[in-house]
Structure formats: structure tokens, C-alpha cells
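Notes from the 1:1 (GR / supervisor)

We went over the backlog. Supervisor wanted to see one worked example end to end before approving the batch request, so GR pasted a single chain during the call. The sequence is below; no edits were made to it. Supervisor asked that the structure be written out right there so they could see what the output format looks like.
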Amino acid sequence: MELAQILLGCLETQLQAPHPWPVPEDRVMLRAGEQVIPLASTSTDECCTGLGYVRIAGIQGVRDVTDRMAASGCFMAERLLTLELGVYRCIPTPAAGAIVTAEQWSEAALKLDADWQAMEAAVCCAFDDPDSLRIGPVAVGLYEPIGPDANCIGGKTTVNIVMEACC
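Structure output shown during the call:
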């Protein structure tokens, strides 16, 4: 969880000014579960307030059972941690009786691009010194757009980190 918290701190920083569309600090958080689904209530909506998150997407062994190193007991020493980070925004909403304009869609696309750049910068910030974190290689996965779904649109990416297991 320490690596997720480090990445979260960097994402929170990157989603603040000078980001052109900052996400409130209290809306950048760790999330748990198989997926992140923005919440809505009668008084607030996570998409429209903005939501930045980091979650543990998976932890798996690095070595295959056919690997000779695994036979010597080294299977216990390494894990591949996958963290997911993402940002949700409110989809453009037109006035009653209208449709979303080209300018509104362009602004939404620019927000998502700025969020992707913030996620990239957060990864660089969090893992710029892997030796001090005692981790192995770090690889960024695929960036994927999210939505539109209901009133939400956004994007997410993953980071794969080879780390030591606590056996």
C-alpha cells in the first residue's frame, strides 16, 4: 500500500494548479475494489466535482512454475504489483432542448488530455528513484478512455512494478 500512497500523493499534486482544470484535493483518493465507479448523491456527484484515484488492480507472482529459479525457492521473492490511476470528469451537458456543442466536446477532450499528462507526471514523480523505494523495473501500461457513461467521462492507466514480497 505504500507504493499506492506515494503515487496518490504525486497524482494529487499533479491535479492541482497549474493544471488547467484542478480536481479538489479531497476528491483525489485511494479506492478499493475491482473497479472504480463514481458515486452520486442528491447533493454531490463525483464526476462533476472531479475524481482522481489510485487503486491496487492486482498483485501476482513474477516467475512461472517452469522457471528454474522458482524451483530453488525464489518464487517467494518477487511480485508484480499493478496500480491503476484515473480521473473522472462530468460529461458536457447542454441546455434543455439543445445538444452538446463542438466547443463543449473540445473542452472535454482537452480536460482528458490534461488529466492524462497529470497521470504521466505522477508516475514519473512517484517512481523516479526506484532504488530508494527498493523496487525493480516500472512500466506504464495502456491509457484507456472511460465513458461516456451516464454523466461521466475520464481516463485511466496502469503502472506495473516489480517488487519484493514479504515472505
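Supervisor's comment: The two ends are 16 Å apart (CA to CA).
Batch request approved.
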